[in-house]
Design a protein that fits this description.
Blueprint (H helix, E strand, L loop, with lengths): L4 E2 L5 H10 L11 E4 L5 E6 L5 E8 L13 H8 L12 H31 L13 H20 L4 H8 L3 E7 L4 E8 L3 H13 L6 H17 L4 H11 L21 H11 L5 E7 L3 H11 L24 E7 L4 E7 L8 H11 L5 H9 L3 E10 L4 E9 L5 H17 L4 H18 L3 H14 L4 H10 L3 H11 L5 E8 L15 H16 L3 H17 L5 H20 L1
Parallel strand pairs: 3-7, 8-12
Antiparallel strand pairs: 1-5, 2-3, 4-6, 4-7, 5-6, 9-11, 9-12, 10-11
Helix pairs in contact: 1-18, 2-7, 3-4, 6-10, 11-17, 12-13, 13-17, 18-20, 19-20
Bound molecules: zinc ion.
Length: 583
């Protein structure tokens, strides 16, 4: 499922591959030092002295679930805006820059009034499409021209990608960010002797960001939506399926935002959003690597301590999902192999039942799990199967599904999945099987604690979901799950009225699946399909080549598990490059 908003560059490829490897569990204790600055900002530090680098991140406790109708997509838009620089980074002339930004706002204000008139005309049926240029009023066209001229003026004094360049020059690598339903995180790895530079750079952009090129970047995000959601085989369907699944919850809309909302977000709304959600008391700094906490804390105080505490607290999300009264079903014709995707409402992060649900997911999933054995090897109704518990901050869901083998229907796969779940409701899982799953947890936990970045990401995610301590405290809770617990949660959550089902059949006249995908597992396939549309629409050969280099560098470093995904992406990038270059 596509659920994370990435920056427009290709940098997310490697990170996505890395995330695909991470199961949500850990065993060893990570020695975290926690401090709170006087302005309410929290600081988590893990000293690890095996290589001379520091991986640093900060998490803003805001994602799409904190948005409201009409303003969807703003959390992810912020992820883009935070790379635009500060008064000293990103411009040759800050006072001129400010003048242009103010002038742009004046033009935009009038454009908004014209756009409101256009929407009214659309509601009356006088125009057929809000996006079409020819439907715009003469005044709106004039204003747009005026606005483009201001953008041109701003470009004259802009220093593009300066934020990135300062870091790269200092030997830093892997700068990126992501937005999910529950958090927005920014991260990078710097040489150990550049920790103070990190403190300065990150505190500057957090303290006095300049939202220059705001509307141009909004358009970039709109384009990102088009590429990632609208041009992928399942993008729009998955978005619609999620919106169908959640009635009241703010998980109802996609991280990327609804197409109608994105083009209406104003800079004033962004400023207000920043004041609420990017205040120090809503932020956690995380450092993992070669530094001394006794040095880092005073540095954090010196740099981040400059930022005054925010005037208001970020509001809690108060809407909880009412119990679903009836099964929901969606039937889709798509350019995809026949498959079924099933969602059940479960529990949020840290809920006492979440551990048993995670264990249940493990019993069903993986190559040695019951779904694979039963549906792929056994009855052979499916070629791919998956199951996972997705515990978010405010609510949770369980997702299972699979792709039908030729000659079988998605409905047969669906029924076969239910049959496996019924077995879990009726009989307790044998001790040996349960123990095997727990051992797998412990083994994958160990693997994830051998380098800085995976530790950093675990801290980002756990803190973003509400409690970083889970990275140490969850392991014994998993080990304590009993066969009776698994049976109980199977009975409580896996009921007919608690689920939503999407059946996908191949749209008549569309071809079969890309044979290159055959080597990938279900998760990787989803990731690959989400990325391939983007690769195919890339027109900049230089960018492609840079990303190809990045994937090749990753291939050398990452484990065998992700290799097929990276090989696939490499091949698709090479194909696209050849296409561009032979044009
Ligand atoms: Zn993005």
């Amino acid at each position: 499922m596509v659920r994370v908003g990435w920056r427009a560059s290709f940098k997310w490829v490697a990170f996505a591959a890395c995330m695909a490897l991470m199961a949500p569990l850990r065993a060893q204790q990570v020695p975290v030092i926690e401090k709170t600055l006087p302005n309410g900002m929290r600081l988590l530090m893990v000293e690890r002295h095996d290589e001379p680098t520091v991986s640093g991140a900060w998490v803003a406790h805001v994602g799409s679930s904190n948005e409201r109708p009409g303003l969807t997509g703003i959390a992810h838009l912020f992820e883009h805006m935070m790379f635009k620089g500060t008064p000293t980074i990103g411009t040759k002339d800050y006072s001129k820059d400010l003048e242009i930004i103010a002038a742009q706002e004046r033009v935009r204000e009038e454009m908004r009034r014209e756009e409101a008139k256009l929407r009214a005309a659309y509601r009356r049926g006088d125009v057929d499409d809000l996006q079409k240029i020819e439907n715009r009023s003469e005044r709106l066209k004039e204003l747009d021209k005026e606005f483009q001229e201001l953008i041109e003026q701003q470009r004259q004094i802009l220093v593009k990608n300066e934020f990135d360049r300062v870091y790269t020059t200092a030997g830093a690598s892997g700068m990126n960010a992501f937005t999910s339903e529950d958090m927005t995180a920014y991260f990078i790895t710097v040489p150990a002797n550049k920790l103070e530079l990190w403190m300065w750079m990150e505190s500057e952009r957090l303290w006095r960001p300049v939202f220059r090129e705001f509307y141009a970047e909004r358009d970039v995000v709109y384009e990102e939506r088009r590429l990632r959601t609208e041009s992928t085989p399942l993008g729009k369907f998955q978005e619609s399926f999620m919106a169908m699944f959640w009635d009241a919850s703010t998980y109802n809309w996609p991280v990327i935002g609804w197409p109608a909302d994105l083009p209406t977000i104003s800079k004033a709304q962004a400023d207000e959003f920043y004041g609420t959600y990017y205040a120090p008391q809503n932020i956690t700094l995380i450092l993992v690597g070669d530094f001394k906490a006794t040095d880092a804390e005073p540095l954090a105080l010196r740099y981040f301590g400059r930022i005054p505490r925010g005037a208001r607290e970020a509001p809690d999300v108060v809407t909880w999902e009412p119990p679903q009264p009836a099964e929901k079903r969606m039937l889709a014709e798509a350019e995809t192999n026949p498959q079924v995707d099933i969602l059940w409402h479960t529990v949020p992060f840290g809920h006492k039942d979440s551990y048993a649900l995670d264990v249940l997911a493990r019993i069903l999933s993986t190559r040695t799990g019951r779904l694979y054995k039963g549906l792929v090897l056994g009855s052979q109704v499916a070629t791919e199967v998956y199951a996972q518990q997705d515990a978010r901050k405010w609510a949770g869901l369980f997702n299972a599904g699979g792709e039908a083998k030729e000659g079988h229907t998605p409905e047969e796969v669906e029924q076969a999945i239910y049959a496996e779940i019924e077995k879990l409701k009726e009989a307790e899982v044998p001790d040996q099987e349960l123990q095997k799953v727990k051992n797998n947890f412990a083994a994958s936990e160990y693997r994830k604690l051998t380098s800085n970045l995976p530790i950093l990401f675990q801290l980002i995610v756990a803190d973003g979901l509400g409690n970083w301590r889970e990275i140490n405290e969850a392991a014994p809770k998993y080990q304590a799950v009993t066969a009776a617990d698994v049976k109980r949660v199977a009975r409580v959550y896996f009921t007919r009225e608690n689920r939503a089902v999407a059946i996908y059949v191949r749209k008549p006249g569309t071809g079969g699946e890309d044979p290159d995908l055959a080597e990938l597992n279900a998760d990787q396939k989803k990731a690959a399909q989400a990325m391939v549309g983007r690769i195919r629409s890339e027109t900049d050969a230089k960018k492609l080549r840079e990303n190809l280099d990045r994937v090749e560098a990753q291939l050398a470093q990452l484990s065998a598990e992700v290799k097929p995904l990276l090989d696939f992406l490499k091949k698709k990038m090479q194909e696209r490059l050849t296409q561009i270059e032979t044009k």
